[in-house]
Amino acid sequence: MKITRLTTYRVPPRWMLLKIETDEGVTGWGEPVIEGRARTVEAAVHELSDYLVGKDPARINDLWQTMYRAGFYRGGPILMSAIAGVDQALWDIKGKVLGQPVYELLGGLVRDRMKTYSWVGGDRPAELIAGIAALREAGFDTFKMNGTEELGIVDNARKVDQAVARVAEVRAKFGFEIEFGVDFHGRVSAPMAKVLLRELEPYRPLFVEEPVLAEQDEYYRALADATSIPLAAGERMYSRFDFKRVFERGGLSIVQPDLSHAGGITECVKIAAMAEAHDIAFAPHCPLGPVALASCLQVDFVAHNAVLQEQSMGIHYNQGAELLDYVKNKEDFHLSSGWIRPLTKPGLGVEIDEERVIEASRQAPDWRNPVWRHADGSVAEW
Ligand SMILES: O=C(O)C(=O)C[C@@H](O)[C@H](O)CO
Ligand SMILES: [Mg+2]
Known about the structure:
Blueprint: E1 3-11, E2 15-22, E3 27-30, H1 38-52, H2 60-69, H3 77-98, H4 102-105, E4 114-119, H5 128-137, E5 142-146, H6 157-174, E6 179-183, H7 190-200, E7 207-209, H8 220-225, E8 231-233, H9 240-249, E9 254-255, H10 264-277, E10 281-282, H11 290-300, E11 309-310, E12 335-336, E13 339-340, H12 354-361, E14 372-373, E15 379-380
Parallel strand pairs: 4-5, 4-11, 5-6, 6-7, 7-8, 8-9, 9-10
Antiparallel strand pairs: 1-2, 2-3, 4-13, 12-13, 14-15
């Protein structure tokens, strides 16, 4: 079998889908994208096709190593997202050829169902109570919210109190019947992370995510020593080589690689195993579409330390399309009270409606995240 063609479709809300075709009619789907840089990743995918067209899609490991190493420069969000989407599609093809879901090819199920969580509130955390109440109706009990709005490197007590008050209100309303992560989203500096973590302690969030920016990962250890709140990060780390420094320095209780940013299934299975050796939980980041989620789930069901899966149903970014809009087998993503069962169909287990994708690609937005600024006019972390 040989790879014959790579076709990319940028589609609403801000995703990109990749179809890889072969000379025997088997196709595989991937979701290579960096939110806000879809066109850049698209160019990277098509540059990688030099290594792929004419090759045997079964040789995933060799194709992965070639895409990663042969171009001399490596790593980073663009290249690793391009590799991720190709890798997902190659696993999809392999599973379809062998008639097995990817988790079977990785050694079989380690659990019968996987716990997921939903976002509440938007870029600026608001209406958290209403958002949680609505999802509670659907049986969800685990959520994630942004922790702050713009926050200065050193900021005032009022800003801290506002952030804490939102969390306090959630706990006051729902008690410990629910769990939630608080995403600092890289908006919080190391000095302010110490302050915020201390003030959030009484409310016992399930985790605090990206307590500082990934480029400040040397602070994870000190922050973890100052709090009992589990610290999580990973969406802006792109390979084993990024994560190894975090494992060596310590501080994280949960790692959250994104299956569409960190080299795909081949790489994230290795990251999960490295994390397990350090007694660190695995909770893939996934604010994206159905192929990204299916890829996450294929790894969740073989990783002993997988604890929680992000999924984008109802997320504030999904304007113009929802998680399953491009999926034929919607029933296979059955989310019941926040739990999801394995996707048992061959490959990734997701059947893409290509006609819908082609139609939607005609209105592909050039999604960008907003540029935030502080009161003094300087750029703020979004
Ligand atoms: O889902 C999360 O945890 C996020 O922090 C969302 C962020 O990753 C956006 O997708 C960036 O555009
Ligand atoms: Mg996040």
